[in-house]
Amino acid sequence: MLAVRKARRKLRMGTICSPNPSGTKTSSEVCNADWMASLPPHLHNLPLSNLAIPGSHDSFSYWVDEKSPVGPDQTQAIKRLARISLVKKLMKKWSVTQNLTFREQLEAGIRYFDLRVSSKPGDADQEIYFIHGLFGIKVWDGLMEIDSFLTQHPQEIIFLDFNHFYAMDETHHKCLVLRIQEAFGNKLCPACSVESLTLRTLWEKNCQVLIFYHCPFYKQHPFLWPGKKIPAPWANTTSVRKLILFLETTLSERAPRGSFHVSQAILTPRVKTIARGLVGGLKNTLVHRNLPAILDWVKTQKPGAMGVNIITSDFVDLVDFAATVIKLNDLLQEDTALAKC
Question: Is 214 one of the annotated active-site residues of the chain?
Fold first, then answer.
């Protein structure tokens, strides 16, 4: 009977995404689809800026189209080289930073998404695509995939950070914002005081989506949050030691109020890094061997007004990244318990 009760609790919390007939769980079946809904009640009233929230870097780049033109985020030299078909195949190895789709990331517990978008040369329909060197899926398709998950998990809150725009004029921005409205409707949370945003207040308003828009166009729509409300300092290094020092320094400089904070726990390849590991790609050359050390740093962190908030990573499935970040919220529970004693 106890085992049955535990299984029911896990299903309610979303820790088993797709149970199999044998009763055992594979790694692909364990998830955190409802981790926000499952937090203890005393955390429901904490500002979201005080919680530990897992995110992904270049969240959409699980698929890029090597047959499409090179993106406008690349230099003219790269565009010329990319006329050679082999070059695009190599570019793909360095453009892809995730293995999981939006849906799979959400089920794993990812709640912050780093988004870069662009129009595509020759497209007459104003369609907007995700971009990281090469074009990814249509933004509309990604938004619909995310909305489908949110409808099925009404207490989960997500951050969509549109922070890079390429080859986009006012018409493109209007088209993108309309797509966002069409996809999420009443789930969109209007910009307001960061400290007023708690799980409980969002649940009461049935809001699930915060859109950050790093462009002056945000002023035209109340549901677009300015980019300055979610700073994401970038270390721009291949060294784990330098990355951790940078993360510690920027956390110590974090504003105590008025904004969220993104700790980008990622390494960035330099030209010589790519040259040395050309065929291996980002995952095999830089991420795979360094991610465990980065995860060790995450395990030492503590959320709160002056602690970590959102932490992002490449290839979030290679280690137990999302679960490790989510578990940091247990420290907030310990603080509350000590305060009561």
Answer: no
